[in-house]
Sequence to fold (212 residues):
Amino acid sequence: MLATALDHDLFGKHVDLLADMYRLRRNVFKDRLDWSVAVSGDMEVDLFDALNPTYLLVLTQDGAVVGSVRLLPTVGPTMLADTFPLLLGDRPMPRHEKILESSRFCVDTKRAPQLADNGINRATIMLFAAMIESLRMKNADSIVTVTDVRMERILRRAGWPLERLGSPHRIGQTMALAGYLHASETALQALYQAAGLVGPALVPVTSVRTAA
Fold:
């Protein structure tokens, strides 16, 4: 597997990757988790996809997208502020050029079943590492995210613990919460080791397509 970052200026050149990612999101969030999300045909797309996000993707050697997460700046509209403000409690929405928001984190564990050395799905670990690397590349310090208590436990096991913003709340069938994930060299090295990586998780998208 390989990981790559897809910025909005590259969307037109990689429509196939975008479509594969949107299909993965539909399979995970609508079909498997039965979340209340908007779908169009076999794809899941929302209004935040129109805000020029960066997508981090994990692909198989044949080019199939098996993991993805969306990154947006917090100085504009965010899912936490505009969709899940309940999870902030009494705290204001973090808005700073040094803070990104992640959303729509998903992995197809059937197509990517391999486990890392720490027992966590390897594609998941690669996405975690790619998120920390993206903080560096974007000159940011932290990610704010909406997740659930299960993923909070996975992050703790992976050595990249979530700093809670407030208490969990039940949203649908999910115990959801918001929190920070901070840039951490210690966490990054632990993720590399668990995934069996000797260097950065992210490679240029052109290299990914060549390898695929």
